[in-house]
Amino acid sequence: MANKQxxxxxxxxxxxxxxxxxxxxxxxxxxxxxxxxxxKRALPRIAGHNExxxxxxxxxxxxxxxxxxVLTLYAFSTENWKxxxxxxxxxxxxxxxxxxxxxPELIEENVRVEMIGDIEQLPxxxxxxxxxxxxxxxxxxxLVLNFALNYGSRSEIVHAxxxxxxxxxxxxxxxxxxxxxxxSSYLMTGHxxxxxxxxxxxxxxxxxxxxxxxxxxxxxxxxxVLWPDFSEEHLFEAVKAFxxxxxxxxGLSQ
Length: 254
Ligand code: IPE
Ligand code: IPE
Ligand code: MG
Known about the structure:
Layout: E1 26-30, H1 34-40, H2 45-66, E2 70-77, H3 85-108, E3 112-116, H4 124-137, E4 144-151, H5 153-169, H6 180-186, E5 197-200, E6 219-222, H7 232-244
Parallel strand pairs: 1-2, 1-5, 2-4, 3-4, 5-6
The protein binds 3-methylbut-3-enyl trihydrogen diphosphate (2 copies) and magnesium ion.
One 3-methylbut-3-enyl trihydrogen diphosphate (IPE) binds at residues 30-32, 74-77, 80, 204, 206, 208.
């Protein structure tokens, strides 16, 4: 098993295989560039979001296939409410559309749907679709498909700090027990491993309020490819780049 490699049907010749060893356990993706994809085609921005939804399906299947355990997808930030109402309304319909179409497939593939972000502020129909998918897939043991929806890292940290303070006041937690691990465990990702690999599409090189705490030692991969154009080959390219990195976590390489 040691040097076993995966081979997939390459669409381009010369594709090297991904090593089965060292597949990132948790991949997080900032799915960016839907608007520019549409603009290039003289289409409305929402057409880009629609196309981006298809990429979510493809990439979920590919990630599951190569053995990724957690895939976190940044779908809507706490700052995205600033966009025109029509666009926000459209984005809030996408989870329903995605889940109503693909939920049977996700169940079949043993995928567990989860969400990070403030679910309470979502429109009732969006909340219902997400909660239904979470419930229906709760017993699945395969890939965790974690949607960051109405998610903002600073707000997540603020809530974690508030909860810690409450628990200290209530005597449930001693103040000297507030450690690095305590803070991690109070975040919405408390039960998940930290991302090994972060991918951001569309040529932007920033975090846009995404997992600021959790990404402390994550490997970053930036690509100019717009999210609707992001393919399985692009995912594999990112994984292969990850596999060439030397993660030192502050120590020395072996
Ligand atoms: C990412 O694409 C999707 C969301 C942020 C919801 P954008 O809509 O940000 O696309 P660009 O960056 O304008 O091209
Ligand atoms: C980040 O993309 C949020 C998501 C991908 C959901 P944005 O397009 O909102 O980020 P900025 O505004 O370019 O930083
Ligand atoms: Mg953007």
